[in-house]
Amino acid sequence: MDYNKLAQMLFPDVEHTPEYYEEKFPYRKLPAKAQVTRMAPSPTGFIHLGNLYSALADERIAHRHGGVFYLRIEDTDEKRKVDGAVELIIDTLRYFDIEFDEGAGFPDDAPQNIYGPYFQRQRVEIYHAYAKNLVERGLAYPCFCTEEELEAVRQKQEADKALTGYYGEYAVCRNLSLDEIEKNLADGKPYVLRLRSQGSPDREIIFKDSIKGEVKLPENIHDIVLLKRDGIPTYHFAHAIDDHLMRTTVVVRGGEWLASAPVHYELFHVLGFKMPEYAHTAHLMKFDEETGGKRKLSKRKDPELSLDYYRQDGYHPYCMKVYLMTLLNSNFEEWHEQFPDKDINEFPFSIDKMSQSGALFDKDKLHNICKNELSKLSEEELFDFLYTWADENALEKKDIWFADREKLLDILRLYMGVGMKRRRKDFMYAKQVFEMISYFFDDEDSSQEKDAFRLDGSEVREILSDYLSEYDHSDDNSAWFNKLKAIADRHGYASDMKAYKAAPDNYKGNVSDVAEVVRIAVTGRANTPDLWSIVHIMGEEQMRQRIESAMSQN
């Protein structure tokens, strides 16, 4: 077989050799220990928690020692492409404070984008140069099999109880003569380009996975497709060339890709490339209440898999990063507790500390982290975060919530416990914050369920009537509470908690029951922060309107 002639027949328009691209994309000049990582999604329009999990690992690995983290778009499958998907990826990750150093999203002429283009469909001439070289070396060949013929091969394999796939004696185009190939080309028969695999079923590959350790797998024996009929590469072929020429040193990817490692191992070796370091991550799991076991987070079953879920509800990006870091590195949580005020980017992130087994996603733990981290913010920082969230997710309410800056800041101070010895930890995410404080605003959704009074209607009206007649907005907290205790005494409730505890049967209840009546009338809630503070943030007029409304309804 004259492989050079075959290569020229298949690729008459290829201008450059692999050596040209090796020179065009030289090894990066980076500090010692610096790593080059990438995120390489398909533009499908769905970005999920697993993407953020891996992206955070990539970003930390690259930036810990001054390396590079870039974005490449693997758009070889035109059928799956969704308009606007690339912008969605960049915008979503930027929301969660994950920034790329180069790649898709930067202008083509950006000074850092010297390893582009970063869209695989724009790199076809590069793939063809390497494909032509494989043909010249007898390591790739055209396959003219139709879908029907491939199906017939599969059926024969099943009948023979053999491994399915295109290999060995079942690779019917593997040994076509040059004349046969030339005739097929002259007849206009479509073809794919296949790898002439050098693998053997009785041999194994051995490589070190940065997370799983030493991995042994059977060699690849399949003559996989390198270029599809339209000349566009498959994922396997494109990613090997791209990771090499973009000088990627570490590839973090989901554990489901481990099965493809033999194919990628062979491709790197036949192309003459050094393999990057692979790190196959564990799946994100969740506890399944139905089975009592663990299962993978599912796009169909679990809305919390989508990053839109966290963005629409307003989870603070820093809280998400802190939580994911607890899943990524087993020693992060202890470090963060020891150094709570340090930037988490100072944490010595290590691939070695990434979990080999499934990382369990625990929303309760996420919420606890959110409460703790949000309590560290100033009220101004929280205000700005809430404003940004409302501007994107609650435009119809934003002008009402943010009409009075000082009022909202006062509300946040109250709920955050500003000035107290220990901060309150009530807030988890933006949507929940506004659900908690919505009673301060006259636009409060009337359909929102309010807590019920525990006392009967006539007693509620009498207590509230007494409260309004006694109320003086200039009273300080102590004077206000003394009046509340006097109301309790008049209605048969203990104003002295010691007396109540000593002889509870002598009273209808205690002053807290009276306070609860006022609290529910004013806020609709049985549990809130300090009621006197609430009333003074709300204002006397609004308070009286709420109480009069409650009296009319009981």
SSE layout and pairings?
Elements: H1 3-10, H2 18-24, E1 36-39, H3 49-63, E2 68-71, H4 85-95, E3 102-103, H5 124-136, E4 140-143, H6 147-159, H7 178-186, E5 192-195, E6 204-209, E7 213-218, E8 225-227, H8 235-245, E9 250-254, H9 261-270, E10 277-281, E11 284-287, E12 294-296, H10 307-313, H11 317-328, H12 332-338, E13 359-360, H13 363-374, H14 379-393, H15 395-401, H16 405-416, H17 430-437, H18 457-470, H19 477-490, E14 493-494, H20 497-502, E15 509-510, H21 511-523, H22 531-538, H23 540-552
Parallel strand pairs: 1-2, 2-3, 9-10, 11-13, 14-15
Antiparallel strand pairs: 4-5, 5-8, 6-7, 11-12
Helix pairs in contact: 1-5, 8-9, 11-13, 14-16, 16-22, 18-19, 18-21, 18-23, 21-23
What does this structure look like?
The chain has 554 residues and is mainly α. Among the domains are: 4-12 and 126-281, Rossmann fold (3-Layer(aba) Sandwich); 379-440, no CATH class; 457-552, Arc Repressor Mutant, subunit A (Orthogonal Bundle), CATH 1.10.10. It is built from 23 helices and 15 strands. A hairpin with a 3-residue loop joins strand 6 and strand 7.
User: How would the global form be characterised?
Assistant: elongated
Query: Helical proportion?
Result: 40-55%
Q: Hey, roughly how much beta strand do the residues contain?
A: 5-15%
Mind telling me which CATH architecture of the domain at 4-12 and 126-281 this is?
A: 3-Layer(aba) Sandwich
- CATH H level of the domain at 4-12 and 126-281: which superfamily? HUPs
Query: How many DSSP-defined strands?
Result: 15
Biggest sheet layout: 3 strands, parallel
Using only C-alpha atoms, the radius of gyration works out to 33 Å
According to CATH, the fold-level topology of the domain at 4-12 and 126-281 is Rossmann fold
The low-pLDDT segments are: none
